[in-house]
Amino acid sequence: MGKPFFRDRFEENPKSISEINLVYNYRLEASDKLKNLNYKIENTKNSYDDLKFRFENLKSEYERKNVALVSDFNAYNAWVSTFNAGIQSGRQRDRISEHNYRRPMTEKDELNSIHQNLQERQEEMKRMNDTISSKASVINEIAVNYELDVVNHRDDGNRMGTEFCQGNHTSKEGRQTITIYQFDNGGRLVRVLAHEFRHAL
User: Fold this and answer.
1) pTM exceeding 0.70
2) What is the mean pLDDT of the chain?
3) For residue 7, is it left (φ>0), alpha (ψ between -120 and 50) or beta?
4) What is the DSSP letter of 163?
5) Domain limits, the chain
């Protein structure tokens, strides 16, 4: 049996030709957002199944609400056009009686109320879409680790290059670089670094 040499494999050296970069990118941001929404994020198959189930449900809800919102926006815009045409027609006929003044003002208040409601729903849709994007990023990260199916949302499927692994080691022109993209705690960071250091060795 061989004997260990007890040699230090790595040491801190300001003049070293190696560097380590910790990158805070969209994947860590996505994990942080889901944790703030009380999602339990783990790099496991069970976590993947749970997140994917929630992802599909939220995506279906988003698509359903989006169809209704687009329809209501179209109806609102058509009403605004009719309202403006009526106001313009009344001005051209020079009929500004008290009745003709109050009716448009009441209608305008209704339109303002509808517009405010549409804006609130639009903001809700933006938040939902942001959550869906975060879920897609986290799901796909786990999927890559376990060779599972990825989910598609916006451009997440196009970003599955080196950034979709937890870390990456490169060697170019005599300079070695380790870039860490994902870690949830100190223990995970040590494991990822150890893996990349093996590549460096």
Assistant:
1) no
2) 79
3) beta
4) G
5) 18-200
